[in-house]
């Protein structure tokens, strides 16, 4: 009868099962390897994504502190790191977003808190000072100007990216 | 500075600039009061971490001084005095404690103790919690900066 055509022999059955199982095992081993090999290409460059920080309307010519959060991965913890930026507009309307991290030893600088030196950024730790554009005042501990955030404006919102060091003043 | 490998390496290079130690004093208990101490300790930790973030270049946040709440007070005071002396010998000109244990507000070191009132953090809204920590940290920061100017 035609039954014979469709009957699977023991040999065939074993062949099918072994190829099937073997194939899965091989795939199971190869997939992670390929994934590892191509991972650097697939991954977005860390830190390129920008975070919405403020409405452009809120920005005045007086530096104002905005707090925001960025995702960071520290060993095995993934957490949100609080960050701040001092943001203001120049007379020409250009937006400046400065990192508040003192270039000396990493304290957080404040705007206009030192009575003897108004309209400067002031570091409470070792009395480092920076002018409004972030340039370090010579004779105070910091040796470099404050970092500037990369920024973009989209739909009336200010987005900040990475803080980049500026050339020595 | 925090008690991490990276920060300690920086500390060793820049010792002259880092002259202030902040030591959390954390009571531990089981049974009665456990939750309150845990909550208080949590808040102390958050505030201390925020202050450290802002004053990183001068303040060294040390690992906590931990004790059981019912340890004899005299022994604790002695142990803390020993820690204090060691830190002073290491060049810490300014030394402050932050705690949720009211008992430290009496005694020799009382004027160097920053007391954090215990609030039930676990039943608090996330945004309110942030605000609370930020405000408390700002107060402690003002206290520290004020003392730097005085001492």
Q: Can you count the helices of chain A?
A: 2
- CATH architecture term of chain B: 3-Layer(aba) Sandwich
Number of domains of chain B: 1
- Secondary-structure class of chain B: alpha/beta
Count of beta strands of chain B = 5
How widely separated are the two ends of chain B?
A: 21 Å
Q: Kindly state the number of beta strands of chain A.
A: 9
CATH topology of chain B: Rossmann fold
Radius of gyration of chain B, Cα only, in angstroms?
15 Å
Mean pLDDT of chain B: 91
Arithmetic mean of pLDDT of chain A: 85
Pfam family, one (chain A): Rieske
GO molecular function (chain A): 2 iron, 2 sulfur cluster binding; metal ion binding; monooxygenase activity; oxidoreductase activity, acting on paired donors, with incorporation or reduction of molecular oxygen
Protein name (chain A): Menaquinol:cytochrome c reductase iron-sulfur subunit
Family (chain A): Belongs to the Rieske iron-sulfur protein family.
């Amino acid at each position: 009868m035609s039954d014979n055509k469709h009957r699977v022999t023991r040999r065939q059955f074993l062949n099918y099962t072994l190829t099937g199982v073997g194939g899965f095992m091989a795939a199971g081993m190869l997939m992670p390897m390929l994934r590892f090999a191509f991972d650097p290409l697939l991954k977005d460059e860390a830190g390129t994504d920008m975070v919405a920080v403020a409405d452009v309307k809120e920005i005045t010519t007086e530096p104002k502190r905005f707090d925001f959060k960025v995702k960071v991965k520290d060993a095995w913890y993934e957490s949100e790191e609080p960050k701040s930026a001092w943001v203001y507009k120049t007379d020409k309307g250009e937006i400046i977003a400065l990192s508040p991290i003192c270039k000396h030893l990493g304290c957080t600088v404040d705007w206009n808190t030192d009575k003897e030196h108004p309209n400067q950024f002031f570091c409470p730790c070792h009395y480092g000072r920076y002018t409004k554009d972030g340039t370090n005042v010579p004779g105070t501990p910091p040796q470099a100007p404050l970092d500037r955030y990369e920024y973009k404006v989209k739909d009336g919102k200010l987005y900040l990216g990475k803080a980049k060091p500026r050339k020595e003043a | 500075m925090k008690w991490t490998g990276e920060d300690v390496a920086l500390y060793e290079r820049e010792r002259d600039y880092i002259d202030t130690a902040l030591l959390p004093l954390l009571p531990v208990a089981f049974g009665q009061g456990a939750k309150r101490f845990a909550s208080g300790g949590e808040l102390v930790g958050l505030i201390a971490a925020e202050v450290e973030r802002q004053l990183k270049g001068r303040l060294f946040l040390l690992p906590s001084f931990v004790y059981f709440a019912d340890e004899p007070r005299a022994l604790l005071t002695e142990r803390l005095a020993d820690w204090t002396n060691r830190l002073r010998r290491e060049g810490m000109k300014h030394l402050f404690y932050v705690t949720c244990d009211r008992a430290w507000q009496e005694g020799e070191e009382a004027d160097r103790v920053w007391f954090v009132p215990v609030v039930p953090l676990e039943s608090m809204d996330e945004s309110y919690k942030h605000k609370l920590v930020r405000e408390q940290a700002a107060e402690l920061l003002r206290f520290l900066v004020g003392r730097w100017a005085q001492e």
